[in-house]
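Risk mitigation, structural track. In case the binding assays with zinc ion fail to produce interpretable data, a predicted complex structure has been prepared as a fallback.
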Amino acid sequence: MVTTQQPIVKFWGTRGSLPVNGAAHVKYGGNTSCVEIGTSRENGQFVIIDAGTGLHAFSESLTEITGRDFHICLSHFHLDHLIGIPFFAPLFQAGCAVHFHTIIEDAPDGFEPILDKFMAEPFFPIQSDVFEAELYFHSHASTTQIDLGDLKLETCPIPHPGGAHAYRTHIGGMDVVYATDTEHEPGALNSRLVEFSQTADLMLYDCTYDDDEFMDKKGFGHSTWQEAIRLAQAAEVKNLAIYHHDPSRSDVQLDEIEKKAQRVFKNSFVAADNQLFVLDN
Ligand SMILES: [Zn+2]
Ligand SMILES: [Zn+2]
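Fallback model:
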């Protein structure tokens, strides 16, 4: 992460549902959902949203772990958003703290029993009791404000099987909306999400499908890049990141989607793993 007063979004994982690799996925990458938003790691002014395989890439980028607090906000608990956790280096190091933020509506008993469930045989050979970091489990109301000092977050429920929540971060005068995974109703914008996203500087949205594919994928819990544009226009967001790509989408297909999207919404782009987006005025 570049340390600057200017808020940034670092995309550590942009793929949806399943990590992929290979020649067709070089440009946009294949790590699953994980982004870092903030201004400074040194001052603790950053947050991680979702813990897909991209969390491992974030972890590899760390030069200093001891003495740090890591805040991980989870949109929901499908495996593509959690699978990086067992490989998150700070968990295994004493002298740092890892905070998990979840929403009580999605996890009435909190996140700890969920973590213990998948950090267990036969899914994983070691259990969460080997973690040396101090762990904190924060359970928030469905629509709440989370105060992390200079960085603040708001939450909003979004339709997805089993429940999911969007986050809106505020730092350095810049607002970012992170809204994945979610399914839309054709012809009816999610007015709650439109209101939640009003005039955000950047919106990340679940663009697993396109509108044609969506007709065969109803009930899968995902949305389309065209719906992302409709939402972005209605909410007057300044920039749109096409996010949570279908695992079978090739670089060529994603390039095509970006071209089509930019014809309708100029400030849109297909988010790629390792991409750094600087929020400026
Ligand atoms: Zn997902
Ligand atoms: Zn999901």
